[in-house]
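Reviewers of the previous submission asked for a worked example of the structure-prediction workflow described in the proposal, so we include one complete record here. The input consisted solely of the amino acid sequence. No template or homolog information was supplied to the procedure at any stage.
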Amino acid sequence: MNHYKFIAAMLCVPFFALSQEDDKKDYGKLSGGIESNSQYYVDDPKTGDFTEEDHFRSNNYLRLNYDYKSWFAHIQVESYEPNALLNLYPEFQGTGIGTFAVGYRNEKIEATLGHFYEQFGSGLILRSWEDRQLGINNSIRGANVKYRPTNTLEFSALYGRQRDGFSVSDGSIFGFNAEIGLSSLFNFETTGLDLGLSYVGRDEDLDIDNPNFESLTNSFSARLDFSEGNIYSSIEYIKKGEDVYAELGNIIDDRYFDGSAVLFNFGYAQSGLGIDATFRRMENMAFFSQRDQSANVFNQNFINFIPGLTKQHDYGLTNIYVYQSQPRLTFNPLFKSGEIGGQIDIFYNIKRGTTLGGKYGTKLAFNFATWSGLKGDFNVNDRTYEDTEFFGFGEKYFEEFSLDIKKKWSPKWSSIFSVVNTFYNARFVEDRIGEVNATAIVGEVTHKLGGGKSVRMELSHLFSDDQLSERAEDWAGGTIEFNLNPRISFFATDIYNYGNPDADRQIHYYTVGGSFTKGATRIGASYGRQRGGLVCVGGICRFVPENTGFTLNLSTSF
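From that input alone, the workflow returned the following structure tokens.
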């Protein structure tokens, strides 16, 4: 009962804040937000009985921000009661203060004491962030100072420990960053040129007898951003110093390896055409604030940000075989030292009035992504490797082609057609035996009914040769969504693995639900089955087991 009282109290906060509107003018500004994600899990003859504790589970977040002149403060209270949603990081349990901070900012300086989020460059050397859907919050608790002596220079320094549940990790993080606007310094009129330099150190003392052990691991980064007319590009290089090797959460105190990463991006954009290409090579770039967390599957204690650089798809059947980045050095259960690959996106608008463009034009989007392991010689018994070539492509992990065609037929009718062809090496991506070749075809149509009403329908099919798991060979799927007005919508969706050779495992993963939105408040409710597998946001994934149940989501800001 106390859990429900806490949730009810959280819901009352916005009304209290609104009642203090007059006070904000004299005493600063109070703002914040509430998010509540709850689920009641039920037994299901297809997905199985719910065998965990607490059929009802809820993740709740209350954040309050206070600003007064140049001063600011925030606090975030979190409640995982009576337990967190399935397969969240085990340290997220109970109720407590998740993050808090006070600080000061003006045009030249910004200082924060408490929890903060920070990113250097692309994040390959450092990024702390929060994603509640994935159960990630690796904010840093400590001090962060930024100094901007001019419009072209910014310097940052930080120290702290990463959040670990309601506590912090054992390792300390030191960081320094410089952003230099070269184009302004040298008075370039049409050329954009920016230089970035970073240092990140992780210090964690371990009980190791090896006299060569160093508690401090250093990483350095240099990057350059360039733009001229319709062209833009950037390059970033990271060097990670030697670090003791950790295997399945155990420290191997006589094995030390360094690491490196390079990220290159090039793009061209003009009216009706856009091209963006990215290349990345990473070798032993998994960087944790606590070394024994290297085996965790919850993406906790990561100092750097290493998403899978592939197209982010919108449909259920195009998200069955998704790629996770592979930055780690491992000899057990598989030997791999990193990844190499990239992707290219091409966007083209066929002009109106042409044969293919029609009255309203046609939009094309093409993506190609390929990722492989680094080529090298591995000695699994001795846990050593050598001869990794810079452009050496080893075992192929993932490859995908996709094409989207978006077409407006009339003021009321529009459609999207997508085809996605995927090669997926499950053995190296998720330690599951098998390679998969799959092709997904998706058709979507939207019809506007007037008065804010619209109907969206989607049909999809996945052809797959995956015969080694419950994910089966072929899938069919469909969605219908009805928007009664801009505030109220309803949906029903289903994906069906009818090609599974085991008839008992042929399951309709259906979900029905709706949502109501007014201003900054949104309430959503649904009932259905969750397919087991990876759920990814922005290239970062977490595993979700099969389950069935009722879901209620609430979010508001004030």
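The first helix runs from residue 2 to 19. We consider this example representative of the routine output the project will generate in years two and three.
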